[in-house]
Amino acid sequence: MKPLLNKTTKPFLIYVLIILVISIPVYYWVVDSIWKGELDEHNKTIAEKTANQFNNLKLSDEELAKNIKLWNHIQPETNIEEVPADPLKKDIYTTVEKPKKTSTGSEIERYRCLKTVVYINDKSFLFTIQTNIEESQSTIAVIAVTTVFFFIIIVLGLLILNRRLSSTIWEPFRNTLEKLKNFNLNHQNNIEFEKTDTAEFEELHQSLNKLIEKNISVFKTQKEFTENASHELQTPLAIIKHKLDLLLQNEDLTEKQYEIVEDINKALTRSSRINKNLLLLAKIDNSQFDNSEKIQFDVLVRQSMELLEEHFQQKNISVKSYILPEIYVSGNSGLIEVLINNLLVNAIRHTQKEGSISIKLTEKSFEIANSGTEELDKNLLFKRFSRNSADNNGSGLGLAIIKEICKFQNWSVNYAFENNHHIFTVNF
């Protein structure tokens, strides 16, 4: 990701570069046109001045012819020749290209030409003059180099200003961002933003204060609800379960009554489990857990495996494990225990008798694979109360809880079906 100033600076530099590239031919055309105009005036002045000088000499026709011939000889870029009445309606200005006389190669020079009629001794003469205009290219080169130089100065200055602006003007914004990163709803403390003379930052701080106050209020309400629900619902459920246990111990129950009470007890147990899981999901959604503990993950995995050893033996499931020692993660120990237990219980529940389960723990991931026959629907797998099998003993929330815990821990959980094995992988 790029800083905001860099994103605005780059388009500006590109724009300046485009203008620079466009300006070079424009400079050339403008300077060349000005240069040609100056040369046209220069050539016209020379023609008029030459005619005046010849007229001032008051030469005879023979002397005039000799002097004009001499002039044409010593001035190779000009030519004066007598013509009948004025053959030109107006002066003719042209640009011609000729090979450079002192060059042995094919170098070409440009000349600005003027053809005009002058009058000497009351006779009309066609005066042709050519002036080299190659100097304009040197001028263009100098202008281009100068422009590039100032462009580099602008770029360097912009980069320096960019850094200084980033460290001064944007400092309040970075401080605000840092405070937001460290903000924790569990502490329920408002953030004290520093005062700034920038109107936009002050508006941002005011809006953030309102948003934080509202979130704290909502968080308190939700927390109170989950705490009340946890207490108010679990207490009557526990009383009902206790009464059912007493009723099951009554020897006067008929077999049919016993079956009815047993079904009620199973439904009540499942309802209690669903209630606990929903409350757990609500607490996770509300970020009511601290995730700053340093936890030895491999120890929790081995503890969970020992607790569930009886379930492995009941279904005669073969267990293979590859668990690296000293695997530490940051998070909440209670939630991570729930994550490990849910993954193991899910694998046991959906593994047929005589099946197999493999457990793998590395520095980067925790993987549980169990034998199966067909792939599960990935679109429904982690949704609440969705079922991918006919097993109704679960609450339908186990994988959803795993997904939420991974989200809370900034981990990811993935499912794959390979070689007749369901594979769940948690990437740290």
Automatic annotation (TrEMBL):
Its EC number is 2.7.13.3. Residues 228-428 form the Histidine kinase domain. The chain crosses the membrane at residues 12-30, 140-161. Keywords: Kinase, Membrane, Phosphoprotein, Transferase, Transmembrane, Transmembrane helix. It comes from the Bacteria. It catalyses: ATP + protein L-histidine = ADP + protein N-phospho-L-histidine. CDD domains: HisKA. The keyword Transmembrane helix applies. SMART domains: HATPase_c, HisKA. Pfam families: HATPase_c (PF02518), HisKA (PF00512). This is histidine kinase. It comes from Chryseobacterium ginsengisoli.
